[in-house]
Amino acid sequence: MMEPSSPVMKPSYSGSSPKRGTLQASEIRTCFLFLSPVLFILVALVFYPFLYGVSLSFTSRMVGSAGEFVGYRNFLTIWRDPVFAVAARNSAVLTLATVGVKLVLGLISALLLHQEFPLRSLARGLVFLPWTIPTLIAALSWKWVYDEMSGILNYLLYRVGLTQEFIPWLSDGKLALLSIMVVMIWQGMPFYTMMFLAGLSAIPSELYEAGMVDGATSWQRFWHITLPSLRDIIAIVVMLSSIWTFNGGFNMVYILTRGGPANRTQIIPTLAYEYGIVRGNLALSSAVLVYFLPVFLAVIVLLTRKMFAEESSK
Questions:
Q1: Cβ-count burial of 268 within 10 angstroms (0-12 exposed, 13-18 middle, 19+ buried)?
Q2: Helix 231-256 to helix 82-113 angle, to the nearest 10 degrees?
Q3: pTM (2 decimals)?
């Protein structure tokens, strides 16, 4: 008699194999292992100080005193301070003006440096030089340039006959903020140039050739090919530069004018320094910075959503 054949067991494909599942879990553990130092640094140096600063703004914490919870009292105190209005206006003007000028000049310089001409590498190195100079060295150098009595700027203007008296670049309330803007534009423009040069190098030359065949002028090729190709880079650069200018302007303003004369160049970071370090009121210092947190979050969210929307529409 023939023995009945045993049924053939068919493999089930309803799920992943145990081996594959084990491999995925191992990969996840490995990723967390390599990312754990970065996560630790972010938590220790970014998230914890940020949350601590926000919580500090709702207390009466002074140097040497623990303080207590006071709710929104610090924000009301700052709102009534007339210097806060001056600092907020100066910060807005300084950020918008410098970012706008750096955007235009950086794009122009990138377009020029993207062309072929003799000594192009040397020209690029000279343009990028201000970005490599530490802010402290740059601020001290420009403070000497702007010096009313012994500065090189007044000396040159006097020698060529453009002025007969020394100009108080940093002690005149109308000129001090403008002088700071010039320095910040000089130091920050190379970043824009560098980013735009990288973006221009990634644009296929076939697009420009097709535009020339269709009879497009130089302006039309710039408007319909160059700008759309650089749209994402422009958004990222403007977002980063706005944050850096708003926060990083402290070093430049503090070294050049210390917020003077008569608070005419006071900005939000220097005002926070005045509250926290000079007056010893850590709670008010934190509240000054927390005031503008929603503004930065709104800028970041709007630009990020715009970039993702444009990317998904392509």
A1: buried
A2: 130
A3: 0.81
